[in-house]
């Protein structure tokens, strides 16, 4: 009887405790990742540099003759004559051949005594002094230490900036700046002009024009270009009886030599050489 009672007592006690609730089981639903289209890269090949070539054409009644080139394959170097005009090179051909160049044009202005009328840098060597007053020094062409070439206004470059260049010619006035002709250019005196043009990228042109005024030259270059591309900046070099252009027969359209016998010797030249 005790055994049975113990069983009767034990059994009911085991059923008096409520069952513990079972927590719900979270069910993860797998979401397939979005399928992205395969990525493709568009390769745009760089346009190779065109070889230098002669261009000769009329623009607004002004004749132009010179050479257009790409600064990725060619550059300009300054050939200066420390002992004065004509002391080493009587003309542009002589200056070009001294550097293994294929073309050359006369460059900066100089005083009656033969000193540069402005700053000149040739292979890092500085001659002359920074011209802050005359319009003939209001601009500059330069090549920096990394080989980049540009045309700029003297105030933007400054004396300290100019002295760090590897090549530089201070000249002027600027004829075209930021695709527009420069205002206030002289409009009465007509003369042969030596000029250098730049498209703001890698395309350049240097050469000479037929007799014209600076104002007419600036307006013509801002409207059309003898090189076939738009001129962003243009710098006037020494002209008149200093104009001197030589292009070798190694350049398509050459040879060309334009230097009248009455021209005077000059102090320095810009010479086209391969990189």
Walk me through the structure.
Helices cover 14% and strands 32% of the residues. It has 275 residues and is α+β, with helices and mostly antiparallel strands. Strands 1-2-13-12-14-10-11 form a seven-stranded antiparallel sheet. Strands 3-17-4-15-16 form a five-stranded antiparallel sheet, covered by helices on one side. It has a five-stranded antiparallel sheet with strand order 6-5-9-7-8. It is globular, with a radius of gyration of 37 Å.
Radius of gyration: 37 Å
Q: Specify the structural class.
A: alpha+beta
SSE sequence, one letter per element: HEEEHEEEEEHEEEEEHEEEE
**How many strand segments?**
17
Helix count?
Answer: 4
| Beta-strand residue fraction | 25-35%
| Rounded mean pLDDT score | 89
The dominant shape is: globular
Q: Major sheet: order of its strands?
A: 1-2-13-12-14-10-11
Proportion in helices: 10-25%
pLDDT < 50 runs, ≥5 residues: 1-18
Largest sheet: 7 strands, antiparallel
From the N-terminal CA to the C-terminal CA, the straight-line distance is 120 Å
């Amino acid at each position: 009887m005790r055994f049975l009672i113990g069983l009767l007592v034990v059994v009911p006690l085991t059923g008096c405790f409520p069952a513990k609730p079972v927590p719900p089981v979270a069910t993860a639903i797998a979401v397939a990742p979005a399928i992205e289209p395969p990525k493709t890269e568009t390769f745009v090949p760089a346009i190779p540099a065109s070889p230098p070539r002669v261009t000769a054409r009329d623009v607004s009644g002004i004749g132009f003759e010179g050479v257009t080139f790409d600064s990725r394959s060619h550059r300009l170097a300054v050939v200066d004559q420390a002992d004065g005009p004509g002391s080493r090179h009587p003309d542009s051909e002589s200056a070009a051949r001294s550097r293994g160049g294929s073309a050359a044009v006369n460059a900066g202005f100089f005083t009656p005594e033969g000193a540069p009328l402005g700053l000149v840098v040739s292979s890092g060597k500085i001659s002359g002094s920074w011209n802050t007053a005359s319009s003939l020094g209001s601009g500059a062409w330069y090549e920096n230490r990394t080989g980049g070439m540009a045309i700029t206004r003297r105030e933007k470059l400054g004396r300290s900036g100019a002295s760090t260049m590897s090549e530089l010619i201070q000249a002027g006035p600027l004829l075209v700046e930021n695709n527009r002709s420069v205002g206030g250019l002289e409009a009465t005196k007509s003369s042969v002009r030596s000029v250098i043009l730049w498209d703001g990228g890698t395309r350049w042109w240097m050469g000479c024009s037929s007799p014209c005024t600076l104002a007419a030259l600036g307006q013509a270059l801002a409207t059309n270009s003898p090189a076939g591309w738009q001129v962003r900046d243009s710098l006037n070099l020494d002209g008149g009886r200093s104009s001197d252009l030589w292009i070798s027969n190694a350049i398509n359209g050459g040879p060309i030599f334009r230097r009248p016998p009455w021209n005077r010797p000059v102090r320095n030249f810009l010479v086209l050489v391969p990189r």
